[in-house]
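batch_manifest entry 22 of 60
target: WD40-like beta Propeller containing protein
source organism: Gemmatirosa kalamazoonensis
requested by: lab member K.T.
priority: normal
notes from requester: please return tokens only, no post-processing; we will run our own comparison against the previous entry in this batch. if the run fails, retry once and flag.
--- input ---
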Amino acid sequence: MRRLALAALLGALAATSLGAQVPNAGGDSAGRPLRELPLRPTQPLRFTTDEGTWLSLDLSPDGTTIAFDLLGDLYTLPIAGGKATRITSGQAFDGQPHWAPDGKTIAFVSDRNGSDNLWLVEPDGSHARQLTREENRTFISPTWTPDGKYVVVSRNGAGAGYNLFLYHRDGGTGVQLTGAPTAGAGAPNAGGPNAQPFPSNYVGAAFGPDPRYVYSAVRTAAGGGYNQTSLDWQIAVYDRRTGKTFVRTQAPGSGMRPVLSPDGKWLVYATRNDSLTALRLRDLATGDERWLAPDVQRDDQESRYSRDLMPPFAFTPDSKAIVVAHHGHIWRIGVPDGAQTMIPFTADVDQTIAGAIKLEFPYDDSSLVVRQIRNATRSPDGKRLAFTALDKLWVLDLASCPTSTTGDAPAAACRPRRLTTASDVGEFSPAWSPDGRYVAYVTWNEREGGHVYRARPDVPNGAPERLTTQPGFYDKLTYSPDGRRLVLARGPREQRRDRDELGGNSAEAAGVELVWLPATGGAATVITPVTRFGQPHFGPDTGRVYVFEPADGLVSMRYDGTDRQQHLRVGSPGAQQNAGPQVPPPDEILISPDGDRALVQAGTNLYLIYSVPMVGAVAPQISIQNPAQSQVPVRRLTRVGGDFARWSRDGRQVFYSLGRSFFTYDVARADSLVRDSTARADSLRDARRAGAVPNDTATRATGTRATRAVYEPTRLDVTIRVPKDRPSGTVVLRGARLITMKGDEVIPSGDVVVRDNRIAAVGATGSVTVPNDARVIDVSGKTILPGYVDVHAHIWPAFGVHRTQPWEYLINLAYGVTTTRDPQTSTTDVLSYGDLVETGDLVGPRILATGPGVFTRDNIRSLDDARDVLRRYSEFYHTNTIKQYMAGDRKVRQWIAMAAREQGLMPTLEGGLDFKKNITEAMDGYSGIEHTLPIAPQYKDAVQLFAKSGVTWTPTLIVQYGGPWAENYWYENTNVVDDPKVNHFMPRHEIEKKALRRPGWWAPSAYSFPLFAAQAAKVVAAGGRVGLGSHGQFQGIGAHWEIWNIASGGMPRHDVLRVATIFGAESIGMGRQLGSLEPGKLADLQVLDRNPLDDIRNTNSIRYVMKNGRLYDGNTLAELWPRQRQVAGLWWWKDAANGGGDQQR
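--- output ---
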């Protein structure tokens, strides 16, 4: 929750006494600008290497010395080769060195103050000084103007591509060279009538003898990205006199990283030669071209190119050769003959890294405390609380519950009770009638659809009344203030079968309407069609229905949909790339009952707009980006976060939930405390200025946000403890080959004894003790291995109104995936789904998740901010792991890693197509890296870092970074559309949407996932960890596609299976519970008809799947042990229109 600190209030007085100051960007806990990175790593990383990955280099003007970067340090090397000398060190990532024309200074890019900036250093490493002072920017390939006065560099902007900037070597804020701010440069078709559309990206500046012209690679699209069907970079010339850009190449494989010879005769640039990256040599006098080097470093044009599209290289002063790095080494290539000579080097790497955060989490077999209450709402008299938990409706008598601000355990009498006894439907969206006599709610069942009901909370186990006449898809209930009507959203029942939620996506909102129906039941009356929308509610005019729509803001209308009025829009820049910490656009706006104030949900935080001004026909737009600078008084109410926000009926309180905690924010009480504390702060400040009290006394009295809170809302932790599903009995799987994943152990013929839900014994047949009452199942000739652990599994079955049995869970389990971890769920629905699987109400894999990712929208500007944000996961969501999703520059990412370590969380991260970022995050202690490391090949420096740091790299080659998605390959080379098992468990419309027609086609040579898989093999061979991640691209069999993708790079099959099992379990802190066949571990395994050690494709020969000790048929998920029963049918299995059993094909 938001803590309103006395110190923060001091800075907000000029704006409003109700505002709160946002800490300085890039500051420490006290708001001071950072001068160095905040992390203090302790783990040494030392080795010597004679090869390096993506070596950016430059040659001194006299041709004697090479400067290059290696794992974030700068080195110099004699042109003849030998021992490299490290000239910069420390945890900062220093890179992309470029010599000044006089040879006395090297420009480079460094994040040593927390953000990327330009720095200058002397060739011996002395006198480093900062040239730029930017936040949340990326600088690419600095070079010097020929006169040595300026550094020219590619720099990005918030939400924009890269442009060229000039920075004077003695300082200044810089001059933008290309792009709209430059006169003449932004004109359409600059460069003449036949020119291409004006470039939006300029990368890798280069000069020849004439300083008037700047060569670079340009692109008209946003630049970078994945799964590209075309390669669009070309070499262009920017005229510094006219401001015009002229494109000079039309290479089908792009034109990248131009370098000009000092004599002005030659241009060398990179392009694709089929699937390889090569260097082209152009005679500038004639325009003739030839191949100079047919196979060099693979370019980065299919990713984020954060260190240029190609590693910078250089001509020798005599223009007779270039010096370039490729295939891990440094080479001299003759011009024009192309003869290559290696320049050997060795370099000592001496880094200090944080070491990956590695934890082990306990697992309680017997029971769980429900992690989330949803849509909690207080009764009008404030005495009871209604909410959904475990997809059922509950009521809690608040009189028996003490409230606190610390979340202490509630009294024994403070126990919720079910409102109904229904077992075959989910119950959602509770709403109290104004007189408190009824709770109305919606239901959902996959086979019958949904209805609206109401029930009497004072009648235990009373029969609910159905209020709707037709089944449908209902959500977002609210009573009218007079209690005569219910307002809600309604959609076709069929849409819920095909789609996820009402109002979640405008493209999927066909037939969705806002309706009202009599409070006693009857036919619904349409108010208006809707697409994306929030919770219907009421303001001061009880004849008008208010609702938030993202396109129009807060609007209202009469019950017949007429007289539509727009009341308020809330502005924020949204999640812009490179914009740094920021507030996201609103997800919900709720007008107060008196109509004067508005409650805003933006991301996971709540904001209160204290006055909604009436300004005329056009609704006002209020910014909440910085409450202290908003147009009207605004306060951020939460800091840790808040979900499911509501107003009290009198508008004096705001209610919200977080996990299983319910909060009451007393607006009037908070206002009073803020006024008092502001007055005290003013008095102390005046006294300090007058010299009446020492400065340190005033500082101690005002405190900081971390230690002194003005107001805390009351908190009630709702405790519902329920038993977990746990089978009873002993079963023996006898005679199979056992790939145990205990080291390299393979037992040719063995037995697995399972007691209840855990493995009791594993060993060669006849060597283990079998209880007399055990059921023995003969699996001779088959292969048993652990269930797969998919640690990057986006499943997302449905939000809001939940499914009664997600088909996504069934198909994953049927394909042997017994544990999933979703790294970034967008919403918190997964908390309830995961609990329901644990209780046995749903059949599926173990559902673990990070919850919603940590983004720039979490507005982290200090270590204390990071601590607050991560409390959401450690204290309330109990996710154990989190995902940092490109949440800011390096200092922000370090703060998040530091807070995670403090709070016992394992942080993984979004790879983001940025190899440099991935390197720094491996250094900074992150537990995991999600997605492909986009640079290949990798050599000893990178491989050693990723192996020795302890980070688990999950490459998700199925959605590869750095090349076409491997997913496309499997659609082209397998017939998944007609696969009987897929059609049994996946809705036909989902199959057709994904696999019948797809955009894009790639020749076999264009697929690069085997190359990137080979890098994963190197990391594993070096002792590192790689994980399995199917990314939710094609549920179930997609995990096998990813296993086969990983195997395509030459990794030994046993190691591939370790990736799919034990490595994944260890990466999420479950290595002592899952991932191998060992006594004491949870009984998650699979029985295959064929041996995957012979052919990795045999992973898809599943006969049986066991999860938590229950044995299922691999084709139908009929339970075979200890119960004998069919899985609950999916809706299309009995739909005659879809073929009567499985679906029409």
